[in-house]
Amino acid sequence: MAKLNQPTTSGKKTRQRKTGRRHPLATFALIAIGLGLTGGVYAAANAAPSAASADTAAASQQQIQQGNKLFEANCASCHGMNAVGTSAAPSLIGVGAAAVDFQVGTGRMPMAMDGPQAEEKPPQMTDAETKELAAYVASLAPGPAIPSQQYLNGDGDAAAGAQLFRINCAMCHNVAGAGGALTEGKFAPPLKGVSPVHIYEAMLTGPQNMPVFNDQNITPSQKADIITYLTYLEKNPSPGGFSLGDLGPVAEGLFLWIFGLGSIVGLAVWITAKSN
């Protein structure tokens, strides 16, 4: 009887070992599923900033063709015929319509001369031509789009915008948006008189030495708050009188030290000389 039962016990152990054993490809399948889910979440998160808005609807083929002609005539000598970049200028593949609208709309591009950074000047292209050029560059690869008007009206939260501006922007642009010097001859330009769309595009694309503040760093509504704060500064001049260029307490202290104490010393010398 013992011999008859022995195969049964062995078979039971074999079945237990087979049923409790994991398939060799199970680990790879789990890794593949995890990578797929991670990639899907990442792609969905990064698709939001490039979602089309009222100003970023698909450009017509005619716009793209006109933009291609403008690019070949004005930009290809530096950026290459296919916008892939050269030793003189970077590639424009993936920069999006917002970068083109900012650089060309503010006159920074095409550059007048080489220098530490492209400086603002009167635009060389009309608004329609700028939009055509932006449509062509945007057709080459996905990138940040021109922002919707709903974020540019200056009707956000100015107090929240002031806090965001102090945290993210004031170290270069000054708390009053007056601009400031950087290293190697570069500078952060003043923000007074800059249109809201160009302020938004600068945050979105990070021109020159400016960091990129995409919609994960600063949301569109927060960008609108910053624009509201800068609009408030435009409409409300310094309540204390002469602003001294909005250069802050150092400039004000230096002004008082030189002119205030200088006037007192001069007055004392005048009184002494007159009495003698």
UniProtKB/TrEMBL annotation:
Membrane topology summary: Multi-pass membrane protein
Chief localization: membrane
EC number: 7.1.1.8
PROSITE patterns: CYTC
Disordered: annotated segments: 1-23
Keyword Cell membrane: yes
Subcellular location: Cell membrane
Residues covered by the Cytochrome c domain: 62-141, 156-234
InterPro entries listed in its UniProt record: bc1_cytC-su (IPR009152), Cyt_c-like_dom (IPR009056), Cyt_c-like_dom_sf (IPR036909), Cytochrome_c_Oxidase_Subunit (IPR050597)
Chemical reaction(s) catalysed: a quinol + 2 Fe(III)-[cytochrome c](out) = a quinone + 2 Fe(II)-[cytochrome c](out) + 2 H(+)(out)
Database matches in Pfam families: Cytochrom_C, Cytochrome_CBB3
TM helices/strands, residue ranges: 254-273
Subunit field text: The cytochrome bc1 complex is composed of a cytochrome b (QcrB), the Rieske iron-sulfur protein (QcrA) and a diheme cytochrome c (QcrC) subunit.
Protein name from the UniProt record: Cytochrome bc1 complex cytochrome c subunit
